[in-house]
Predict the structure.
Amino acid sequence: MPRQGWAGFDLARPLIMGVVNVTPDSFSDGGDFATADAAIAQGIRIAEQGADIVDICGESTRPGSLGISPAEELNRVLPVVKALAERGIAVSIDTRHAAVMTAAVSAGARIINDVTALTGDPDSLAAAARSNAAIVLMHMLGEPRTMQADPHYDDTTLDLIDYFDARLQALSVAGIDPARIAIDPGIGFGKKDPHNMLLLTELAAFQVFGCPVLLGVSRKSFVGRLSRKEPPKDRVAGSLAAGLAGFDQGVQIIRVHDVAETYQARAIWQAIGI
């Protein structure tokens, strides 16, 4: 059934969330936009290319990453968030730290995107509740340093359904309106290829909660493993294929690095009217 609006957007068509990593070590574009000026320019560029939302990330959560302090993360992201928000761009802050959530929303971020679903910091649930920002809850098994060591599920999709059910109940107890929440199954976060492929064929199951579903498959390593071992920047076609499969199952938001290509693919998908 049609979803209500989310983060100030109606969801008549899937939204494109474009990624800007203000990091030296992200798996796909680490170092490309590590300075504030480069990140701001990239944020403006992808907004012009058709990104509905620009997602600013200051800490890599790639497999094996060790993390950084909230203070260092703030130094990276705050000038970028502020500059883009002042230009009227819808900004999301990709963080698992409560202090960064609070400061970024104060600087103009409209969305909190947390890979730990507000469990990674004991203060994050309260910070998110106070913020009135829209929220993305992502599933991750374990934490980035060890999440790919030996992930196990009884049934991948049903285990994630149980996880999101529990998280949504926790947010409800904290007084967070369900209309503020989107969920992300976290492809590649504590998941091997069989887990990823099962989730991609069963994405429609996550519509059970009635909130928007976000899908992040852009440039991820499974694309290269299932193809010709291409490096991240050469995985655009495979990323688009996975994203369009998500659209076919009702995904409302797609998080990508290659905005212009995704915009074009979405336009043709819409024109076909599947």
Strands lie at 15-21, 53-57, 91-94, 111-114, 134-138, 181-184, 214-216, 253-256. The radius of gyration is 17 Å. The chain is about 40% helix and 15% strand.
